[in-house]
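Translate sequence into structure tokens.
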Amino acid sequence: MKRRKQGPGRRDEVAGLVTAAARARLLAYAPYSRFRVGAAVRTRDGEVYTGANVENASYPLSHCAERVAIHKAVCDGHRHLDTVVVVADGETPAMPCGACRQVMAEFGVRRVIAASPSGRTRVRTLRQLLAEPFLPERLLGSHENTGTRDRGNARRRRRVR
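Result follows.
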């Protein structure tokens, strides 16, 4: 695998994202698991959004930090994201869950960085973490939802009705 050299600017950029995610982690609402997670998302335009996990007594209603940050970016109009950084409690960096990986695929995330508060990091491409994502082009009628044109799917739907 070919590795891209990290220059000083690139390292500083990653350090800034890790710092933003670490600060967000301190804002987590995690009274049940006591496992605080913060995330920072960089858009392809270079803007950074942060989020923290928000737990609920009804566990399935909890929100992961990664999705909170992604949804904030999306609510501000961003549809193309580049990098997600996650900082979670513990000595070992924690990678995002499957649901977060799928949401990252929806918005084109390329790189995922997991870090621990002590500074240990793991860098992966989203493709390494989610080999076969379910993407909008798999849906019949995706042109109606995403603004893309897919006349073949439209014809097939007409025949099925």
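Note: The CA atoms of residues 140 and 153 lie 6 Å apart.
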